[in-house]
Amino acid sequence: MRRSPLKPETVELAPLERAGILLPLPLAGAYDYKLPRGVDAPRGAVVMAPLGNRETLGVVWGPAEGTVGDNRLKIAQPLDGAPRLPESLCDFIDWVADYTVNPPGAILAMALRSRTAFEPENLRTAYVKGDALPAKLSEARKRALAVADDGLARSVSGLAEDANVTPAVIRGLIAAGALKPTSLPEFAPFALPKADFTAPRLNDEQAGAAAHLRQAVADQKFSAHLLDGVTGSGKTEVYFEAIAQALRQDRQVLILLPEIALTVQFLDRFAARFGVRPAEWHSDLSQKERRRTFRAVMRGDARVVVGARSSLFLPFDELGLIIVDEEHEQAFKQQDGAIYHARDMAVVRARFAACPLILSSATPSLETFINAQTGRYSHLKLHARHGVAQMPCVKIVDLRREHNPDDVAKWLSAPLRAALGETLAAGEQAILFLNRRGYAPLTLCEACGHKLTCPNCSSWLVEHRYKKRLACHQCGYEIAAPSACPECKAEGTLIACGPGVERVAEELAHFFSDARYAIASSDTMHGPAETQGAIRAMAKGEIDVLIGTQIVAKGHHFPQLTLVGVIDADLGGSDGDLRARERTFQLLHQVSGRAGRAEKPGLVLLQTRNPDDAVMAALASGDRDAFYAQEAEFRSRAGAPPYGRLAAVIVSGYDGDTVREIARQLGKFAPSAKDVKVWGPTPAFYALLRGQTRERLLVQAAKGVDMQAYMRAWLAAVKIPAAIRVAVDVDPVSFF
Ligand code: ADP
Ligand code: ZN
Q1: pLDDT at residue number 391
Q2: CATH assignment at residue 654
Q3: In a domain, 401, yes or no
Q4: Rounded percentage of the chain residues whose pLDDT exceeds 90
Q5: Containing H/E element for 442?
Q6: SS3 state at 525
Q7: CA dihedral for 35, 38, 43, 45, sign (positive or negative)
Q8: Rounded Cα gap, residues 392 and 604, in angstroms
Q9: Which tens digits make up the pLDDT trace of 252-263?
């Protein structure tokens, strides 16, 4: 398949009687259809197309191929109101499909997620003042008519409420012709954000960065910018200035956030700056909200959208700016279905839209950092926290030396307990960070050594002691905590191994019985409401200690928080994964950045058994760039990204033997090519996941290799049975 050029191409389609129509399904490409004579249906026009014995949405994609005889072609119908995906979105979809080695229809499906968005608009009936005057005018009727005098259309109940009369009064006026019906659009329009609603006074460094970004927006062409500033330096305030500029120029803005959990706070902050909340787009929205936002974006009524990665596929036609906040976050990588990295695809979307892109982070991904260093992106730095706040002091606690066999404490070292004592005595707050949910990650039988594992996944069952249950964090499988070993049936021999956040909380309560604490972890056991509740309680000062997983590391601003204790800084640092060190650094840096964000100075204690590790050293010294230089050196020597290219193939299915056989064949038929090496197959990290067996292969190639062409040629060489899924992950960021 042809790689689409980055420059949008115009497709000559008129006069249209036949067209290639792309369906939102993982089919090979566009299909030929006939269109009713005389309709104008350019590329992007949304149609209803018959498919088998049903109908599906489709999009006019290009000229017909013309291989099918006219009489065999079915007729696709353009929709009322002639909705159309912008051409820049169509080009983007083609590009993403090509890059991620997916059929374009699979990518189009992501753009047509809101199935009801194209249905005719429902109208609401409302009433305005009519021409007739009723013979009898009671006080209530007079009041209602006085309210209606302003000319606004209201529903029966709305008018009754505004006039403080019963609905019966309103209905009487309608019957008398004193009020007449009119119709209102189904949804109230999105209010326009105001560029100058309130604007902070920026400090010099912020002002410099803001001026640069305003200019980029004014230029209305593609450019990429890394907004690289320490936590609390005002990156958000700075990119708000770029948004203001886009609003002044009447352009649309897309802001990508890594997690829905962060949106609520963000919406309020946006409203404080621009007067109204922006539109939202993520998986928690109802069908109706999706429909509303999708239509408003397509018509240009929604000027600013805050969303998760899928918002990249919304039909913006007037994009003037894209922002990716916390650009290093792995959550931007979509792992299910078509596998893509929203940050990388945002760069491409910005190119097609000819607008600037801002990547914001205190700990950029190495890829982005190198792009900024080599000048492909502009590098805007904010070195200091805004105002009087200072960066926290980071200290290492060497667990090998602190270990005292007589100590009853298992997870809170003596220095951490001492610091907690001081913090609580001063009436300040602390976070205890451990990236492990539940009570204990492993339950083991002391008698026979049996480990409690999930029947559907190759993973341990995690104990959740509050709920007295064991759960699989991969598939959600759950059982009541057993009293006897399921293997050897011995009673009372099951022991909890290692800590989770609940266990740390237990130890905290033991040593500091007066401390008020809460646990925050994204969890099947503790829902998002509970997590939000814990975070709100922390912000209001209703608790002293917040014990949490990575959910507490992100974006929160707790002015009274002066101590961060990292229970196990070594977690996730040493498992052969290419990005494990970078990720550990980013996460620990981010959680450290919660401390001392206001007047009071912050202290961070990192408990580790590897105090000499480069990650620990970089965190303690604050010399981030030295760490990046070293990582870059490692990757360069290994030919790893961004100095070389990687792609993974994941073979999965319920029949383990077939999965292994297909993986073996893929390994055998891998084409040999210059500068390309294929590793595997090997069982994936989760060799069993939700009941499916998984095998992986990894392709490593030099930078100049056309990875997509290689992958296509390869996959075409092996016949894949329908029950087996072969997923391609170009530029993998994790290797589960
Ligand atoms: P970052 O996004 O870099 O972590 P924020 O933009 O969240 O930083 O800023 C941190 C805090 O400092 C926020 O409460 C923000 O409102 C405040 N702040 C930053 N810059 C200014 C400024 N120029 N004037 C007033 N407050 C500011
Ligand atoms: Zn499971």
Answers
A1: 82
A2: 3.30.70.600
A3: yes
A4: 66
A5: strand 442-445
A6: coil
A7: negative
A8: 7
A9: 999 999 987 667
Helix axes 139-148, 167-175, angle to 10 degrees: 80
Domain boundary among 598, 631, 664: 631
Distance 425 CA to ligand 1 centre (A): 29
Give yes or no: residues 558 and 517 share one domain.
yes
Q: Look at residue 434 in the predicted model and tell me its pLDDT.
A: 94
Which residues sit with their C-beta closer than 6 Å to ligand 1?
Answer: 200-203, 206, 229, 231-237, 386, 557
Instruction: Answer yes or no: is 387 within a domain.
Output: no
Q: Which residues are within 8 A (CB) of 515 and not within 5 positions of it... i.e. 6 or more apart?
A: 420, 424, 508, 509, 544, 545
Q: What backbone phi and psi angles, to 5 degrees, belong to 147?
A: -65, -40
Q: Are strands 494-497 and 442-445 parallel, antiparallel or unpaired?
A: antiparallel
- What secondary structure letter does DSSP report for 544? S
Nearest CA to ligand 1 atom 20: 234
Q: Which amino acid is at 218?
A: A
Closest approach atom of ligand 1 to CA 555: 4
Residues 167 and 211 in one domain: no
From the CA atom positions of the chain, what is the Rg in Å?
29
User: 701 phi and psi, to 5 degrees?
Assistant: -140, 160
User: Do 516 and 480 lie in a common domain?
Assistant: no
Whether the pLDDT of residue 525 is over 70: the answer is no
Residues of the chain with pLDDT > 70, as a percent, come to 96
In a domain, 524, yes or no: yes
The residue assigned the tokens 């293997």 is 487
Which one-letter amino acid corresponds to residue 496? A
In whole angstroms, what is the distance from residue 353 CA to residue 691 CA? 42
For the segment 128-163, what is each residue's pLDDT rounded down to a tens digit?
Answer: 988 888 877 889 999 999 999 888 888 898 899 999
Element spanning 33, H or E: strand 31-34
Residue with tokens 């949405």, as numbered in its chain: 57
**Distance in Å, CA 451 to ligand 2 centroid:** 14
The count of other CB atoms within 10 Å of the CB of residue 453 is 16
Same domain, 620 and 573: yes
Domain identity same for 231 and 369: yes
Give the three-class secondary structure for 219. Answer: helix
**Residue 351 shares a structural domain with residue 363:** yes
Q: Is the pLDDT of residue 9 over 70?
A: no
Residue closest via CA to ligand 1's atom 23 equals: 202
CATH code of the domain containing 270: 3.40.50.300
User: How far away, in angstroms, is 460 Cα from ligand 2 center?
Assistant: 8
Point out the ligand 1 atom lying closest to the alpha carbon of residue 206. 23
Q: What is the pLDDT of residues 650-696, one digit of tens each?
A: 999 999 999 999 999 999 999 999 999 999 899 998 999 999 999 99
Dist. CA 440 → ligand 2 center (Å): 16
Indicate if the pLDDT at residue 250 is higher than 80.
Answer: yes
**532 or 374, greater pLDDT:** 374
Q: pLDDT tens digits, residue range 284-325? A: 888 889 999 999 999 999 999 999 999 999 999 999 999 999
Which amino acid is present at 210?
A: A
* Average pLDDT, rounded, for the chain: 90
Residues 352 and 251 in one domain: yes
Q: Is the pLDDT of residue 608 over 90?
A: yes
Quick one: DSSP state of residue 173? H
Of 239-243, 353-357, 371-375, 388-392, which gets the smallest average pLDDT? Answer: 388-392
Q: Does 288 or 264 have the greater pLDDT score?
A: 288
- Return the structure tokens found at 22: 């792309």
Q: Are residues 572 and 624 both part of a single domain?
A: yes
- Split into its structural domains, the chain has a count of 6
- Residues across the chain: 736
What per-residue confidence (pLDDT) applies to 10?
Answer: 47
User: Which ligand is the nearest neighbour of the Cα of 688?
Assistant: 2
The answer to whether residue 460 is domain-embedded is: yes
Instruction: Name the residue range of residue 178's domain.
Output: 124-184
Ligand 1 center from residue 564 Cα (angstroms): 20
Alpha-carbon gap, residue 335 to 641, rounded angstroms? 19
Give the domain CATH number at 79. Answer: 3.40.1440.60
Model confidence at 573, pLDDT cuts 50, 70, 90, reads low
By alpha-carbon position, which residue is closest to atom 26 of ligand 1?
200
Q: What type of residue is 552?
A: V
